[in-house]
Design a protein that fits this description.
Elements (H helix, E strand, L loop, with lengths): L1 H21 L2 E4 L5 E4 L6 E2 L6 H7 L23 E9 L1 H4 L3 E6 L2 E2 L1 E6 L2 E7 L5 E4 L7 E9 L2 H12 L31 E2 L4 E5 L14 E4 L2 E2 L2 E2 L2 E4 L2 E3 L1 E6 L11 H13 L4 E4 L8 H10 L2 E5 L11 H18 L5 E5 L4 H7 L2 H4 L4 H26 L5 E2 L11 H4 L2 E3 L20 E4 L8 H7 L10 H5 L6 H12 L3 H4 L4 H25 L6 E4 L23 H9 L24 E5 L2 E5 L4 E8 L11 E3 L4 E5 L9 E4 L1 H5 L4
Parallel strand pairs: 18-19, 18-25, 19-20, 20-21, 21-22, 23-24
Antiparallel strand pairs: 1-12, 2-3, 2-4, 4-10, 5-9, 5-12, 6-11, 7-8, 7-10, 13-16, 14-15, 16-17, 26-27, 27-30, 28-29, 28-31
Helix pairs in contact: 5-6, 7-10, 16-17
Length: about 675
Amino acid sequence: MNLKKHFYSVICLGLIHFSSVATAQNIDLKKDWKYREEKTQKWYPATVPGEIHTDLLNNKTIPDPFYRDNEKKVVWVERKNWEYKTTFQVAAATLKKKNTELVFDGLDTYATVYLNNQLVLKADNMFRQWRVDVKKVLKSGNNDLVIVFQSAQNVVDSLAKKDLPFVIPDNPRAYVRKAQYHFGWDWGPKFTTCGIWKTPRLEAYDKKEAEKPYVLNRKIELVQQPDSLGKSFYFKIDGKPVYMKGANYIPSDAFLSRVTKKEYEKVIAMAKDANMNMLRVWGGGIYEDDYFYDLCDKNGIYVWQDFMFAGTMVPGDKAFFDNVKEEVKYQVKRLRHHPSIVLWCGNNEADEAFKNWGWQKSMNMSKKDSTRLWHDYVRLFQDSIPKWVKEVDNKRPYISSSPLFHWSKEKSITEGDSHYWGTWWGLEDVEVVKNKTGRFVSEYGMQAMPNYSSIEAFTLPEDRYLYSDILQAHQKAGKGFIKLDSYLNRYFIDSTKIKKMNVEDYTYLTQCLQYYSLKNIIGIHRSKAPYNMGTLVWQLNDCWPVASWSVTDYYNRQPKAAWYAMREAYRDDITPQIDLTRPIDLQLEDPKISWQVKGNKVVLKATKAAKYVYISVKGYTGKWSDNYIDLTAGEEKTLSFEGKIANPDIKVVSLYDVLKKYK
């Protein structure tokens, strides 16, 4: 009988709780938004979530920012202030709730919010959730909501000027809690956006729902132990060491509202299909959408999560620290239930940058200023953030920065994680990696052009010659083409011939170079296990069409050549191949490749050995079962493409075919 009473009392309590929760009202505020340049007359339709650039583009007020050199034609946008407004209905029943709050999960970035002509909020952090009690301001019927966005570029410039002669390296972006890549990067455009980048809502309730208990049914350890060779750096999951194979992830679009669930699915599928088990969410982007982590959870992909700081020092004032504290606690609480996340990392490259990038000399920094910068850095990343993280998540490891040692330092190879940029930035040969493999290589890479179909999409025919202004506009890396040509000269074709190449052939060769480099570097890294316990390529994806280190293309997330190399090198059922024979040293003969189309399959055959056989179908934007393959003499190989194409226009090229043009 007592058991029955207990049962009924639990049911009743549950119903009471259900009743209070069930009557809570969440009203999404997505509809009927308009925008205008501040203090101008005309309002235009706006999309929420969105940003000013996408709204301007949708209203045909600016040209496509990704096309040709239009980036410089829209630079004016970031210097203006912009207003957004909507009117939403509130029922009398909603007003009777004890609590009514306006909730913003994403305001980018300096936003002043007015409800019914009353100032209710001033926001200054893109990464925080902002809640404001509006019960006394709301009214039954129509309610007017206005948000004014100040130019983030103007604000940071004024903050930096105010601090003079003190200078925070390397960019005024250090002052603002906003996605740092919005200020431009060596693979990304400069579109310093503003807008309502996540859906706002009205929450009305009598009693707040109890916070869900935080449970993590997995033991995560980062083992950093001194040993005879230096200091280890590897992950133990539930007591077992795991070799991490993966890539660095940047935001998948310069305009975040365009990253739909479908786009996330494409990108994570590219990681999963390439046999990756880790992605590092890089600190110059954003704390990703929950759906990104859901997909990682589902697909068995571990996440190394940076906090959003990259390659710069930080202000040390109380307001900045308080702002970051709220950001850290909110984001960790939001994300901690995802089992995929195995590490919190304070920042990307700020520690090694301060010690090795020459800021003190180039900025003529006084010893006093240098000391202050380092003190503020230590206070945030070594003292404050780990303490704030621990308050809300004491189950995951934290490191202050990635990496601690510059790639030119010996300790980069023997201790901690390493960003090994001797290849590419240092122009070292690929073979050097045999003697310079770190304990956990969390960044390295080789550039390549985007797929030629992408180049066709952002250029006019007259732009398609080597080093054209338009191609330069889509090459953001310092001396990018000079470095690419240096590697092509060593590994594929004499430099005197490169200048004669057409863009399509040049694109093909750069992708072969990236394939060759990553295949061998990954193979070398993995051969060094357990000394080396992780290899994360820079980078998985692009945020626009550009020459970069990405192994997938921006358009349609199509694989570049190196993606196929990674897929093979990350397999666990075979030992990765290492073949350091330079293609330039091969004695190639005409392979006379023939092919037959059978439905969605293409059967290839070569009479002589063929290298980097690349197959494409005009207009096809999917993924081949394999590509950039080698064929032995007389070998038949069947490749397939997804879906069906009537009368496919097929093109097949090999390394011989391209090189023979320039003899």
